[in-house]
TrEMBL record:
Pterin-binding domain ranges (all copies): 132-382
Stored CDD domains: Met_dep_hydrolase_A (cd01299)
PROSITE patterns documented for this protein: PTERIN_BINDING
GO molecular function: hydrolase activity, acting on carbon-nitrogen (but not peptide) bonds
One Pfam family of this chain: Amidohydro_1
Top-level taxon: Bacteria
Official protein name in the record: Amidohydrolase family protein
Gene3D superfamilies with a match to the protein in the record: Metal-dependent hydrolases, Urease, subunit C, domain 1
Organism: Candidatus Fermentithermobacillus carboniphilus
InterPro entries noted in UniProt: Amidohydro-rel (IPR006680), Metal-dep_hydrolase_composite (IPR011059), Metal_Hydrolase (IPR032466), Metallo-dep_Hydrolase (IPR051781), OTAase-like (IPR057744), Pterin-binding_dom (IPR000489)
Length: 389
């Protein structure tokens, strides 16, 4: 079994109770972390990686991606493109994502189960990309958000059938669309598109099959309805209010905040600016409310989900998160240990600790003191194998 020694000038293990430690040594045996210590362990080692002047973190976890789409064009254009085009673009997208330090993605809606195929071929070693936890098709009401790529379902019976269909086709989790969204032209972002009995029916079937349920929801009314319906994760939660935050905290529901990449684009589409930028400008208030009530917060890039969401740019979203009020440490926790807990894989991912999978990202500088250093990826290790570095 291959044995690897990593020498870390600085190491943050991703645990909320931990701080950065200097001069640490990580031993990897096969695909698992064997030990983490401040004393150089004895060999022999098949490989030694010296990062004495760098910062070692757990592999980052992007809690909201759409890897089947290119992040440059509207979903309402892309769904008309040949499947072969989407496939070849996705090969590039998963590679860019992994090389940005993201070793795991919660992928929350693709095109005709392309996400399931990407996951399979990455696991088989045919493609280079992050480990993926996939939802299959999104489930929406007739004409609901992203209806052109989703499974449309109305009423509890159809919702149950739609959930079962996703599970049959390889979904690790379920994704519902409960309010309007920016990627669907003309929709009001606060429109509530699912009824309570529909949400409860979907959750019942998903939980019976050991799948978590995440839900797209922007508006406060939609957020409260889905939490009442028993979901596990609220994606975006852009207009979260005090009551909604208290409900989420009381029920242990995760929030996946999506700060956006708009700072990269000087010329935004006028309709996008009108409909979406008020949500972005409200991000600091949303984060303040969530933190006040103790909501569990993860971060997702929404990469691929709209024309302003490029792949491989998690650094931009983490910088935005710090601008809205998080410390660099809190931001990094939102894409490591907290994200692993959100997905339900905290027993094997999210921290650098003995027995965990050896997913590790290495950065120049120190992202815990200057979050912009998160863009300076020096090396990526996934499943104990050096991908870049």
């Amino acid at each position: 079994m291959n044995r690897l020694l990593i020498k870390a000038g600085r190491l943050f293990n991703g645990d909320r109770a931990s701080e950065v430690k200097e001069n640490q040594y990580v031993v990897v045996s096969g695909n698992l972390i064997e030990s983490v210590t401040d004393r150089e362990p004895e060999g022999p080692f098949d490989q030694v990686l010296d990062f004495h002047d760098k910062t070692v973190l757990p592999g980052l976890i992007d809690a909201h991606t759409h890897l089947a789409f290119n992040g440059r064009e509207s979903l309402f254009k892309l769904y008309l493109d040949p499947r072969d085009k989407l496939c070849f673009e996705a090969v590039d997208s998963v590679r860019k994502t992994l090389l940005s330090g993201v070793t795991t993605c919660r992928d929350v809606g693709g095109f005709n189960y392309l996400d399931v195929s990407l996951k399979k071929f990455i696991e088989q070693g045919i493609l280079i990309g992050p480990r993926m936890f996939v939802s299959g098709k999104m489930i929406t009401a007739t004409g609901g958000h992203c209806y052109v790529i989703a499974t449309e379902a109305n009423g509890p019976a159809e919702m149950r059938a739609a959930v079962r269909e996703q599970i049959k086709n390889g979904a690790d989790m379920i994704k519902l669309m409960a309010t309007g969204g920016g990627a669907s032209p003309g929709q009001h972002l606060e429109a509530v598109q699912l009824e309570l009995d529909e949400i409860r029916a979907a959750v019942e079937v998903a939980h019976s099959n050991f799948r978590r349920v995440g839900v797209h929801a922007h508006g406060a009314a939609g957020i409260k309805r889905v939490v009442e319906g028993g979901v596990d994760i609220v994606d975006h939660a852009s207009l979260l209010d005090e009551d909604g935050a208290k409900m989420m905290a009381d029920k242990g529901v995760f929030m996946v905040i999506t700060p956006g990449h708009e700072s990269m684009f000087p010329n935004l589409d006028p309709d996008w600016t009108r409909r979406m930028m008020p949500l972005r400008s409200r991000a600091a208030k949303t984060l303040e409310i969530a933190r006040k009530h103790g909501v569990k917060i993860c971060m997702g890039t929404d990469a691929g989900g709209n024309p302003y969401a490029p792949h491989g740019k998690i650094s931009v979203c983490l910088e935005e998160l710090v601008k809205t009020g998080m410390t660099p440490k809190e931001a990094i926790i939102s894409v490591t240990s907290m994200a692993a807990e959100c997905i339900g894989v905290q027993d094997r991912l999210g921290t650098i600790a003995p027995g965990k999978l050896a997913d590790i990202a290495v950065f120049e500088g120190n992202p815990l003191s200057d979050i912009t250093d998160i863009a300076r990826v020096a090396a990526v290790i996934k499943d104990g194998k050096l991908i870049q570095g």
